C-alpha cells in the first residue's frame, strides 16, 4: 500500500496563506468605508498614469510622486495603474496592490524565517 507523506509544515503554511489572503480580501471595498486620503492620492495618480502617462503635476512617467505634501511610492502607483487599466477605477482596484503584496509577504516571511532558522520558526514568524 502506498502511503502519501504529508508535509505538516506545507499544510500549515497553505492554511495560513489561505486564511490570511481571505481576510485581506474580505469586505475589501467597504472596510474602511471610502478611500483614505493616501488611497485617494494613489488612486488619482495611478488613474492619471493609466490614462495619460502623466501624474497630477503633468510630469510624464515620474520616478517621484508628490501629493498632499509628501512623496508616494512609485512602484505602488505604477502597479495600481496596471490594475486600474484592466479593471477600472474603484476602491477595490486601488487597494488590490496592497492586498496582493500582503498575501505574498506571508510566503516571503515564511521563506526568510525557514532559511535563517528552521521551518518551525518560519511558521511562527508569520
From TrEMBL:
Residue stretches making up the Glycosyltransferase RgtA/B/C/D-like domain = 73-125
Q: Where is the signal peptide?
A: none
> What membrane topology is given?
Multi-pass membrane protein
Regions crossing the membrane: 9-26, 99-117
GO CC field:
plasma membrane
Provide this UniProt record's keywords sorted from A to Z: Cell membrane, Glycosyltransferase, Membrane, Transferase, Transmembrane, Transmembrane helix
Q: Chief location of this protein?
A: membrane
Its domain of life? Answer: Bacteria
Where is it located? Cell membrane
Q: In the record, what terms sit under GO molecular function? A: pentosyltransferase activity
> Pfam families, from UniProt?
PMT_2
Q: Mention one GO biological process in which this protein takes part, according to its record.
A: response to iron(III) ion
Its recorded name reads: 4-amino-4-deoxy-L-arabinose transferase
Source organism per UniProt: Candidatus Roizmanbacteria bacterium CG01_land_8_20_14_3_00_33_9
Amino acid at each position: 500500500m502506498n502511503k502519501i507523506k504529508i508535509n505538516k509544515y506545507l499544510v500549515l503554511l497553505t492554511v495560513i496563506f489561505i486564511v490570511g489572503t481571505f481576510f485581506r480580501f474580505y469586505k475589501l471595498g467597504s472596510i474602511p468605508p471610502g478611500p483614505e486620503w493616501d488611497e485617494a492620492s494613489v488612486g488619482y495618480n495611478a488613474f492619471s498614469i493609466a490614462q495619460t502617462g502623466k501624474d497630477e503635476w503633468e510630469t510624464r512617467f515620474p520616478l517621484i510622486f508628490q501629493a498632499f505634501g509628501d512623496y508616494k511610492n512609485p512602484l505602488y502607483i505604477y502597479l495600481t495603474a496596471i490594475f486600474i487599466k484592466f479593471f477600472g477605477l474603484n476602491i477595490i482596484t486601488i487597494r488590490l496592490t496592497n492586498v496582493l503584496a500582503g498575501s505574498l509577504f506571508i510566503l516571503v516571511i515564511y521563506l526568510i524565517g525557514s532559511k535563517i532558522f528552521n521551518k518551525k520558526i518560519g511558521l511562527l514568524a508569520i
